[in-house]
Amino acid sequence: MNRYFTYSDGSAWGSPALLCARDKTVTSGSTVYTILVLPAEGSGCTSPSGKYDVVVINGTTSSISVSLGKAATSLGMKYYAGLPAPVKRTDLTYLPDLSYQATFSLFTARFLLYQGKVNNVPGLAGFYHHTEMPLSDGAVWDAVLTVYRIQNSRIAQYQPSRSALVSPYIDSRAAFSGRVTVDQARNAVENIADTAGNVHLSIAVQDGMGTGKGGSFFGSESGNSVDQYAASIVGSGSWGSKYIAPTRDYFAALAEGVDGTGAELWANLEGMAPSTSQNPCDNSLRGQTTKSRMDKQLQQLGNAPVKVISFMWDPYFTCSGTWAPMLDRLKASSMTPVITDSIFYGNGDVLVTGQNLSGGTVQVKWTDTAGRVFDKTVAASSYNSTYGQQLGINPRLESVVAKLGATSLGSGKNYFIDVTNGSGQKNDALYSDRG
Fold first, then answer.
1. Per-residue DSSP letter, 384
2. Cα dihedral value 261, 267, 268, 273, nearest 10
3. Phi/psi at 85 (nearest 5 deg)?
4. What radius of gyration do the chain's Cα atoms show?
């Protein structure tokens, strides 16, 4: 034998995973060991050189992936099963070890064949790439792109009706050596999209706010001090000095990067905050966040992503700490308006997009071409609950129109919008844009 590897997803794979004569299952107590003997060269079951790699899979329960697939199907939801992740290099521990990529590719194939046997249900939408990378176009990350390319090709081969999901992250910290500019992020997301091959790939970019790696602020707020949670990571100072650019600029560039590639841009809203003494959460490295902070994050995503998720941060939604669980706070303020974008037309109409916008008023503060400052509140008209669907963007986006009357907007001048909807709820995150 050449090399030995272990793999555990908590599940007892057993006989459905056995394809070759050398494969076997051994049970010891409550643990089931599934042993796959993979050719170190070639494909199928036989190695022309006689060299084989052995993968020992251990688990004690029925397949967790199968249980989740069944649950998703019964609830009418979609579930992404996690793909195997390669061993990391010992010298650069943030990069995958590609010295055994042929075996890794073959094991991915066996994993997908196993899923096809035991988890072929409508709720299984596709497969999630565990191996993470920042949105960087540096050549050092080519190894991660190789992993994506290997596994996407195997999905296309063995699960052609299913898609793939990957979740890179923004790191825009100005003082961090690995910081990524907006232009680099645009290039990076296109590089990731190019690994898809014949697989439909969704790229759910982590916004960085939960880890302090990204900043959700408007240009008009660039001189404001970072909040206490971001300060625990980047230190005290202004948003504009601590971060290269706001999240909003990154997502606008990311939309350009995926355009024409066939990939979809999603957003992965980090549902926590950097931990301080003020927001503990079960002794975790991250802490509870606030509803208004999450609204800022959602707002900064704009209308670029076709879907917004908040993936695998469930504990931060359910833990109790300084505040009640976030899940309860989200339910209690589920009708809060969120403004994601706007267009200030030359005829004095302002199109406002977001969520929970109907039935109330829109307040607009602006400066006209003559330098006069206005502050006007008007009824929210022309409510459109299907705005996102009609444009083929995030289907949850709504729109209203504020009719200000004959006016103008000064070039390069910031304008500010607040919405109070028909439920009497007002947006709790500042919105501003520039003419």
1. E
2. 140
3. -110, 140
4. 25
Q: Which helix or strand (DSSP H or E) is residue 156 part of?
A: helix 142-158
Alpha-carbon 433 to chain mean position:
25
pLDDT of the residue at 283: 84
CA distance 213 to 206: 10
Alpha carbons 258 and 129: distance in angstroms, whole number: 18
The Cβ of residue 150 has, within 10 Å, a number of other Cβ atoms equal to 20
Q: pTM to 2 decimals? A: 0.95
Phi-psi region of 53 (alpha: psi -120 to 50; beta: other; left: phi over 0): beta
Q: Contact, 367 vs 373, CB < 8 A?
A: yes
Name the burial class of residue 409, with classes exposed (0-12), middle (13-18) and buried (19+) by CB atoms within 10 angstroms of its CB. Answer: buried
Q: HSE-up of 191 (CA within 13 Å, CB side)?
A: 22
| CA gap 433, 114 in Å, rounded | 51
For residue 74, name the pLDDT band (cuts at 50, 70, 90). very high
Closest CA to 16 of 62, 60, 82: 62
How would you classify residue 302: left for phi > 0, otherwise alpha for psi between -120 and 50, otherwise beta?
Answer: left
Beta bridge partners of 66: none
Residues 336/308/292/327 CA torsion (nearest 10 deg): 80
d(CA 163, CA 203): 11
Residues 387 and 340: their CA atoms lie apart, in Å, by 12
Nearest Cα to 175, choosing from 217, 114, 238, 221? 238
pLDDT in tens, 219-231: 999 999 999 999 9
| Degrees to nearest 5, angle at CA 131 with 150 and 44 | 30
CB neighbours (10 Å) of residue 377? 14
pLDDT tens for 362-379 read 999 999 999 999 999 999
Strand order in the sheet with 3-11: 3-11, 52-61, 31-39, 24-28
Q: Which residues contact 19 (CB under 8 A, 6 or more apart)?
A: 45, 110, 113
Residue 361's beta-bridge partner residues?
A: 379, 420
